[in-house]
Amino acid sequence: MLVNSSLLLAAIPATAFAAFPLPLLLQRYGRASAALAAAAVMATCLALLLLLAPATLAGSTELVQLAWLPDYGLDLSLRLDGLGLLFSLLICGIGLLVVLYAAYYLPASDRLGRFYATLLLFMAAMLGIVLSENLLMLLVFWEITSLSSFLLVAYHSDKYESRSAARMALAVTGGGGFALLAGILLLGHIAGSYELSVILAAGDRIHAHALYAPTLILILLGAFTKSAQFPFHFWLPTAMTAPTPVSAYLHSATMVKAGIFLLARLYPALGSSDLWFWLVGGTGAVTLIYAAAMALFRHDIKGLLAYSTISQLGLITLLFGLDTPLSVVAGLFHVINHAIFKASLFMAAGVIDHECGTRDMRRVNGMFRYMPITATLAIIAAGSMAGVPLLNGFLSKEMFFAETVSYPQFEPLGWALPLFATIAGMLAVAYSSRFVHDVFFNGEPIDLPRQPHEPPRWMRAPIELLVLLCLLVGIFPGWTVGPLLDAAAAATLQDTIPSFRLALWHGFNQPLLMSTLALAGGVLIYVLRAPLFAWQEQLPRMHPRTAFERFHRHLASSARRLVAMLDNGSLQRYNALLFSFVVLLAGWAFLSGPTAGIRLPGQAADAAGVAALIALLIGAVGATLLYRERLLAVILVSVVGLVVALTFIRFSAPDLALTQLAVETGTIILMLLVLYYLPPRQAAKSSAQRLARDLLLAAFAGAGLGLITLRMLAAPLETIAGFYLEQSIPGGGGANVVNVILVDFRGFDTLGEITVLAMVALASHALLDRLVLFAPGQDADGRRWAGEAHPLFLSMLIRPLLPLALTVSVYIFLRGHNEPGGGFVAGLITSVALVMQYLGNGIAFAQPRLPRQPARLLALGLLLAAGIGVASWFFARPFLTSAHGHVQLPLLGDIELASAMVFDLGVYVVVVTVVLTVLSGLGELSLRARYRSET
Amino acid sequence: MDALLAIAVGVLTACGVFLILRARTFPVLLGLTLLSYAVNLFLFASGRLRVDAPPLIRAGASALTNYTDPLPQALVLTAIVIGFGMTAYLAMLALRSLSESGSDHVDTDQQP
């Protein structure tokens, strides 16, 4: 071969996934371009497959592996063997026909780009499923088919039925996909790999494992929901609201076969056990018979076809469940046959719908006269579905019958299985007869919206080709599908294939007798349909679909109730819930933690400590009790702030004390400014119930954090402080360890923090933008606010203070690396000094004299900090590596300069800008405020 | 001393939580400030309480045990500044919401 075959294999899904948006891009050149693009993609994939086919048919397995996330067992690995080839030929071949068909079927007003793109995405995902070597990857493709089929079923998205049908299909298959995910994870856990090569060879180990049963059940849930097996079948008839090309492609040939594919693919790993027999065989048998009976009673042509599809899928499932090599072969054979005849039947149903405007078999009658060619084609395909000799459906049904006759187990009830199979065969004949007789004969059409006639030439072409295949396979099975079936069976069984003979004539034997009985009995059932229909009419309407819908409604309404309970739009409620949850969680952790009692303090409390605590309690409790007296509350809170600052001083944290004092000043000014605008109206008293709730929460939170503090203080200290203390001078070039940590060791954290601050400034700027508030003309007691100019004494005193304060802040900034100080503190001091100018001289004086570009300054600060970090890259060091050295300056003497100081300068600029933006922004409000007395 | 600090943290938390649960914006602002004090003290205490041992390396002093843990201090320092940012932002929100809705209730949507 000229080209590497691994490359060819990888090219198949790659082409499909890369090219799926093509129709969308080309639709502006017309419907034909979109359709041609889709056809070209399908044809390319098909051609690549055909290039690879000879080697695969000869029995080789092509593997491609690309490491992706090897730690999680997820690799991009592909596998092409007989089974994959069989399914991918169906996917590409029937896909190509559906593309042609859809171009004629869908209304001329549709642009088709979206449709074809979704169809191609679906095809790509299906190819992904059947060509995956890695099960996790298979699962990803599996989910993509669910999603893209959702879009395809909901093609008529303006119709409620389409949307709800699509939603139901997605819910059922998506739910199955969820189970499948769990099953695959278990399987990978048992086998130790997600690669099929490993899993398929580990059958014995998997069967012996304790988790075999749950693994099997979960994987089967995935397969059964996808393949519409009872009791998950109900989504398929509902999904018939999809355009017919979609039904022909997804609901006959491909997606519903994905579940079957999974059964076949994992057969060597999971098959051959009693549990497999009962679950797979049992589900298949129930589905086969139930859906066949349901199909008979449908009046909608597509409904009949949908139930017949479910029934035929049940038949294939049953064959896999019978668990003999030959039954597996029969199952694979029926996969091919069913795809061919059912796709052509769906397309014929689409033609009838298209020509008549309805699909109701009580009205669509006698079509043979109006469209003889289509009718002949549909009758042949229906014959194949019924199992009429010379057609492909006959052969696989014959194999099914033969399997039931020679089934080894079930000794005492040897006759039961063949009898069951014959009855199922009768029902298939009956619903096929109903389709043929009701639609094409049975008198004249009743009240059709349109005058039916033959469809356009090329709309019929796909049906002709498929029906031709029905005949070819039916008459020359060994010559047409023999090699493919051999290769697929070998790949499925991972073993030598049993000897079987694909032929039309096997002599007079039991299966032939059963076929004859089925044909005769089926026709008889159809002839006697009138009493059956009457009997069915009076049956109570019990349908899994209604159960699903009720469940769905119930789920939605409980979700709404829960949301209404939790998310009622009340911040108070959210906060209460949040605090309760935190209290519960922390309480649980606290109580279930180590139970060592709380040892009371090592250091004795001294008078100063007690006095500070008393001051703090007065401040905190006073502010809480008197929060309605707003001004008083602000003053009380500032007392708490002072005590906190003193605590920092006492316990060896001078930097914190400086910062706290500076921030305190800013906070108080901020609160006073806000207070001015807040309405003086007193808040209504909280209800007793709410008060009790809040007090309880507060008590629990306070007691909890207090206890946690005690326990923490009692626990032995484990710290990484040693590193910072040791490395501060040699590594960071500074004696003030706190500052070195901030600007050097953990500089990246600080960079993040000043970014947050910058965002606060920008957000405040935006929130205050053009904000107009009512300013009170008088206070709560009715006294007018003072309107005089700023006191001269104050303003004159404050102006010369500015250079002084700035000098102090420069000093604090420069010494920060070695003594308490640094960018944060210096920034706060500078901003307080500047805010003083506002306070003393008024906004009108200060505003023009100060820089008014917060965004630029913030950017400057952040760039300084980040830039010095980036600069270390030029010295081939990691981000934010610092350098330091000594410089002799006149007057000041020896100054230690560290690159970290530039970083600190960035911090300084940001802090100053933030505080100024916020406070001066608030101050500016007064220039725009409207006075209540004037309005 | 440990017990005093624990009491302080507990009382500040309780007062902060209670005020945050009030219905008007101003007490929420006060509550947030009190809660920030509590959390900062708590974080600070995780480095333990030591007197006369500021983390300023003195020339000649070789023993590193004479210094208190600097890491919680660094964390609290930024926490204080960020806390101011939070308070400021909340204050702006409160004013904006007052201007949009004409009320200083935290749940302006709930007002009939």
Automatic annotation (TrEMBL), chain B:
Topology versus the membrane, per the UniProt entry? Answer: Multi-pass membrane protein
Q: Which InterPro entries match?
A: CPA3_antiporter_subunitC (IPR050601), NUOK/Mnh_C1-like (IPR039428)
Does the keyword Membrane belong to this entry?
yes
Gene3D superfamilies membership: 1.10.287.3510
Q: Does the keyword Membrane apply?
A: yes
Give the transmembrane region(s).
Answer: 6-21, 28-46, 74-95
Q: Where in the cell is it found?
A: Cell membrane
Query: Where is it chiefly localized?
Result: membrane
A Gene Ontology term for the protein's cellular component: plasma membrane
> What are the entry keywords?
Cell membrane, Membrane, Transmembrane, Transmembrane helix
**Family, per the entry?**
Belongs to the CPA3 antiporters (TC 2.A.63) subunit C family.
From the Swiss-Prot or TrEMBL record, give the protein name: Na+/H+ antiporter subunit C
